[in-house]
Amino acid sequence: MIKLIFIAYLVCLFMVTLLPDASNITYETTFNLSPITSIDDFAYDIMHNGIINWEFLATKPTDFVELFTYTFTDSFKNLIGNIIIFIPLGLLYPLCRKKKIGFVEALIVILGSTVAIELIQFLFLTSRRADVDDIILNFIGGLIGFLIYKWLK
Hints:
The chain is mainly α. The chain has helices spanning 2-18, 37-49, 54-57, 64-70, 74-84, 87-96, 103-124, 132-152; strands at 30-32, 129-131. The model has no long low-confidence stretch (mean pLDDT 93). Helix 1 packs antiparallel against helix 6, helix 5 crosses helix 8 (132-152) and helix 7 (103-124) runs antiparallel to helix 8 (132-152). The two termini are 18 Å apart. 23% of the residues are buried. It is globular and about 50 Å long.
């Protein structure tokens, strides 16, 4: 059952990170190679605009999908989303393996996965932005997942 959940997670991860984003087609590759730049921009925006999109909530939305999608600011969703999306990898990968997974192997799988995603985005997807800060945030999420796995064991 855990392996099926892991496969479903990998499919979702692929869809979220590697399918073209039709709302953001730029026809040119965009990237950020300066560590902490995007994270700093997100933190600045959150400090000044908060995490809740009050203008949207003032319209008194009733559609659950819109409520789920637009309640939080884009900076908050990007910052937290990049962490949350990799927590299952750090948790489920070791649970699917028959042998005990050590910290170094988990580190290699998590880091390798996020770097591969960012490289594919840079090389093949003009609608996606390759960002070194995504690697940092994804890695933090994966480590949180691995720590949850260690705590459960």
